[in-house]
Write a structure and sequence with these properties.
Blueprint lengths: L3 E9 L2 H17 L3 E5 L13 E7 L2 H8 L2 H10 L3 E9 L2
Antiparallel strand pairs: 1-3, 1-4, 2-3
Helix pairs in contact: 1-3
């Protein structure tokens, strides 16, 4: 069965508040069996629009990735992030 991934591209405007969100989200990632593969770090834009912070989370399967992204627990973390930046998040199935 293919793994599932949550991919995020973010622009952080309030780092302290974002850190509070990230700590809570990290707890939820573990709860749903996820592993961070990419969290920040250097990046280069080859085409299109890039954002300064990128995240790739690996889950056992697509269902687990979706369950994390749409969970009540992650919803609580998301509330902590309000006003601290912008993010695009998607769940995808691996190859």
């Amino acid at each position: 069965m293919p793994k599932g991934y949550v991919i995020g591209r973010a622009k952080v405007t309030h780092a302290t508040q974002w850190a509070v969100y990230a700590a809570k989200a990290s707890e939820v990632i573990k709860q749903y069996g996820g592993t961070p593969l990419v969290r920040g770090g250097q990046m280069s834009v080859g085409e299109g629009e890039g954002r300064s912070r990128n995240v790739v989370l690996e889950f056992p399967d697509y269902a687990a990735a979706k369950a994390y992204l749409f969970s009540a627990e992650y919803g609580e973390a998301r509330k902590l992030r309000e006003g601290a930046g912008e993010i695009d998040l998607i769940a995808v199935e691996g190859a």
